[in-house]
């Protein structure tokens, strides 16, 4: 398992806000994240637009998509957009990708078949990598085709020592099912699942490692991440109420019993105990998504200042000589 340090990121919920981001950058937080549907049922932003705002409104932290529903986008266009944002941010982008599907009309409206979204995502990831590598690229696949094209990211004045990351931003695969795990093992730079218990996360680690071995791929440098809905409060009952109100509607008559397995809540000490189980399962970077309608900065602050210091990477298993 790569990485001997636990780090935290924060999801900018519900929308990126300049003052909120400035406050988060003063905390021991390594990254900030936002997603965004194309045609959501509520008036929320689109992921590339939100990403542009976050790169402009931050200076230190990495900035990521959680997630970009890649099959909805033409990959040559999104490769250019992400390359330019990465270059202008000084190489601070991370790109979480997934297939979505919960809003079928999004696919219908942009002319993409819902059943094709997995294969389309795999091909689009290969296109992004080829274009970000530099030089002329030709590609002829199931969904996309072009000959002898070259992507040239912008290089802002004074950015000679920075610019886009070599090979482009890391591609982090999101999801919960077997196809997403295979995609992470074969094409991804990391694994960024959500709504998953520690035991389930441990199973995904084993699956990804097995898939990577079968593909002959070395996972050195692979990023083991978790997008985690949670609430941390001085008052543990308030935190549990936060999560029940924020996520409980989707879980029927017994939300707290079910949510307790996938959305930690409580005091800093209680949440640290739950997150340590994820660390033991393999997580090395948490994206803290405040499961609360108010006071989200307080949730992130308590997580960063009082939960993170309580976490530790397990000692490696030593094999007797």
TrEMBL record:
SUPFAM superfamilies: Bacterial luciferase-like. Residues 18-248 form the Luciferase-like domain. Pfam families: Bac_luciferase. The keyword Cell wall biogenesis/degradation does not apply. Keywords: Oxidoreductase. The keyword Transferase does not apply. GO terms for molecular function: oxidoreductase activity, acting on paired donors, with incorporation or reduction of molecular oxygen. InterPro entries: F420-G6PD/mer (IPR050564), Lucif-like_OxRdtase_Rv2161c (IPR019921), Luciferase-like_dom (IPR011251), Luciferase-like_sf (IPR036661). This is LLM class flavin-dependent oxidoreductase.
């Amino acid at each position: 398992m790569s990485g001997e340090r636990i780090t935290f990121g924060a999801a900018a919920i519900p929308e990126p806000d300049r003052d909120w981001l400035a406050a988060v950058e003063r905390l021991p937080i390594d990254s900030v994240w936002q997603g965004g549907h194309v045609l959501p049922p509520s008036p929320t932003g689109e992921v590339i637009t939100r990403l542009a705002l976050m790169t402009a409104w931050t200076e230190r932290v990495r900035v990521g998509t959680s997630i970009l529903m890649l099959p909805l986008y033409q990959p040559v266009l999104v490769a250019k957009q992400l390359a330019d944002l990465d270059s202008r941010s000084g190489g601070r982008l991370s790109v979480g990708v997934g297939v979505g599907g919960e809003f079928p009309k999004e696919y219908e409206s942009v002319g993409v078949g819902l059943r094709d979204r997995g294969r389309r995502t795999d091909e689009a990831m290969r296109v992004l990598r080829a274009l970000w590598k530099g030089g002329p690229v030709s590609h002829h696949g199931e969904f996309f085709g072009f000959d002898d094209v070259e992507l040239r990211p912008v290089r802002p004045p004074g950015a000679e020592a920075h610019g886009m990351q070599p090979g482009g931003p890391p591609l982090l695969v999101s999801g919960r099912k077997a196809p997403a795990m295979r995609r992470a093992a074969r094409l991804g730079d990391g694994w960024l699942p959500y709504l998953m218990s520690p035991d389930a996360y441990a199973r995904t680690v084993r699956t990804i490692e097995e898939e990577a071995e079968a593909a002959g791929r070395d996972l050195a440098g692979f990023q083991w991440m978790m997008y985690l809905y949670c609430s941390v409060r001085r008052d543990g009952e308030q935190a549990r109420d936060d999560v029940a109100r924020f996520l409980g509607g989707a879980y029927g008559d017994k939300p707290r019993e079910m949510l307790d397995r996938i959305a930690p809540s409580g005091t800093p000490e209680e949440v640290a105990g739950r997150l340590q189980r994820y660390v033991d399962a393999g997580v090395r970077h948490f994206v803290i998504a405040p499961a609360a309608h108010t006071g989200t900065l307080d949730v992130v602050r308590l997580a960063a200042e009082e939960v993170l210091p309580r976490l530790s990477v397990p000692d490696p298993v030593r094999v007797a000589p």
